[in-house]
Amino acid sequence: MSAPSLLDQLPGLGDQARRLHAPVRLALLALTVLVSLLLFASTPLQGRVDFVVFVVIAFALVQTGVSFALEGRRHALDRLVSLLVHLALLAAVVPLVSVLSYTVYKGLKKLDGQFLTHNLTGLGPLDTNGGEYHAIIGTLEQVLMATAIAVPLGLLVAIYITEYGKGWLAAAVRFVIDVMTGIPSIVAGLFVFAFWVIGLHRGYSGLAAAFSLTILMLPVVVRSSEEMIKLVPAELREASYALGLPKWKTILRIVLPTASAGITTGTMLAVARVTGETAPLLLTSFITPATNTSPIAGKQTAIPTFIFSQIGLGRPANYDRAWAAALTLIIIVLVLYISARLLTRRNTLTRR
Amino acid sequence: MTASTERPPPDLSGGGLGATRRVGDRVFAALTTGAGVLVLALIVAIGAFLLTKAIPAVQKDSTNFFTTKLWQPDNDPSVFGIAALVFGTLLSSIIALVVAGPIAIGIALYISDYAPRRLATPIGYLVDLLAAVPSVVYGLWGLLFLAPHSDKFQQFLSDHFGFIPLFDLGKNGVVGRSMMIASLVLAIMILPIVAAISREIFLQVPQANREAALALGATKLEMIRLAVLPYSKSGVVGALMLGLGRALGETIAVALVLSLSYSTSFHIIDANVGGNTIAANIASQYQAAEPLGQRALIASGLVLFVITFAVNALARYVVTRSGKRAAAV
Prior knowledge:
Chain A is mostly helical.
C-alpha cells in the first residue's frame, strides 16, 4: 500500500542535518497553537471553529515557510501537500462523525418501545406519540421482496457474463450493467410508476416498490458476483471437469460455493444501499399512516418515506419522529454494512 | 463427444459423455442467457415507457419544453419546461464536484501512498461508510443541522467575497437553505464514490514505478507526480464523472435541503433565490400532480435519464480504458 519501508531506512540522499524532523514539526505546531490562543484572547477573533481553521491555516504557512528556508522548495512543497492530504481525510471524517453523532443524539429522544410498536393512525397534528411500526413492516417486506428477485436474477446474469457470454450480446449486457449502476433512483421509481402503477393500473403497493429497488440492486449484485466468480481458480474447474462433472454442475457445485462469501458480501452491501432509498418508494408505495401488512396491494410506508413525510409536516414532534426513524434506519444499514465487511475477512479469494 | 451445434471452448468442455448431461448444460445456458437478455430488455423498457408517457405530455405543453422556466403543467393552458431544472441540476452537481473532487483525490492518495499500511484498509472502509448513510438522513441533517450552523460561514462569504457574483447576497438576500448548502451535502454524498474508485486506480500503479522514482531521490510529492498521476489520470477523470453522475440524480437530500424555486441564478448563497433540480422537482411535485402533471414529471425524468446515461456511459468508457473496471460502489 504505502511506499516500501526499505527506502525509508536508507541513509537519505539529502542533507540529514537540515531535515525538519517530527519533534521539530510538533514544536512548530505547539508554537502556532500558543500564538493563536494569545491572538484569540486579545483580539476580536473568537469561536471554536474559527480557532481550528485559523490554527490549520497558520500551521500550513509556518511549516511551509520554515521548511522552505531549511530544506528548500522541493521539500516545502512536499510537506504542504502531505498536510493537505491529511486534511482531506479530515474533511471526510468530520461530516461522517457529525451526521452519525447528531442522529444518535436527536434520535434517542423519541426512540423507545412505544415508537417501535405503534403506527400513526388516529393522531392529530399536535400529538407527540405514534411510531414507525408500519414503516418497519414496509421496509422489511419491500427489501425482502427486492432481494428475492434481484439476487437469483443477478447471479444468473453474472454467470452468463463470466461463463457463457460471448460476442456482442455479452458486451452489451456488461455495458448495460455498468450503466445501470448509475441510474438515478428516482428514474427507477418513475419507470415502475409509468409501467406498473399507472400503466397497468396496479396502483401503489409494496411490490411496486420492490420492483424499483430490484432495478437498483441488480447491477450491484451482478458486479460483485462477477468479480468473485472470476477469482475462482481455474484449477478447481479443471479438477471438476476431470472428474466428469458437466459445466452447469461445476458452476453450481464448485464455482458458486467457492465464491459464496464474496457474493454474500456484495449482496449485503446492495441490500444496505436500497434499504435507505427514499425517492423510488415515494412514487411506488407512497405513504400511509396505517399499517399495511399486504406486500402486494395498497399504499405502504417504509422507514425512509416515513422520515421524508414527517419532515414535510414540519412540527417539532414530526422532527422528533424523523430523527428517531433516521436512527433506526442508520442502525439497520450500518449493521448490514459492517457485517458485510466482517464477512469479507472470511473470504479466501483475493485479487492477484 | 456427441455432435453439438454449440461447441463449448475446449478448456471448459467438461463431462459431456452422455446426451443427458448435455440437456442440463443447454437448459442452464439458456437460463443465464435469458437473464442477460432480460437486463437488456429492462433498460430498453425503461427508456421506452418513459418516452411513451412523456411525448403526449410534451405535446400538450403550450410553451417550449426545453426553454421554459416555469412548472405549471396542470394549469390551463399547460405551462412547463425544464430550463430552470436543468440549470439547477448542473449547477449543484458541478459545485459538488468542484468541492468533492480534490478532497476525494486527496483521500485516495492518503490511502494509497500516505497511510500507514495497517491503517489503509480500515480507513478505506471508514470513508466508504459515508456512502452507507441514506440520502434522506443527509437531507435531515442538512436541513436541521448544516444549514442553520453555516449561517455564519455564508454571511462571512457574502461580507468578504461578495464582489464575486457567486457569493453576492444582494439587498434582500438571506442565508440559509441555499444552493451552496445543497451542493455541499451533495459533495459529501459523492465523496466516497470518487474516493473509492480513485483509490483502486492509484493502487494499480505498479509499485516498481514508485520505487524507481523514490530511488532517484524524488520526494513523495514528486514521486506521485512522476509515477502515480500520469498512470492514473484518465481513471481519475472517469471517477470524477461517475461522481458527477451520482450528483445529477440525487433526489431526496436536495429536495429537503434546498429552498425550492424555479430560478436560474448564480447567487448560490442566497436562500431567497434558492433553486431546483430535475430529481428534487419530481419528488416535491408529484403528490399534488394530476395525470398531465404526472406525465410532465415523467418527461423531465426522461431528460434526467438521458443526461445521466450519457455521463455514466462516458465515465465507464474512460475508466475501462484506463485499466480495470471500477469496483461496484
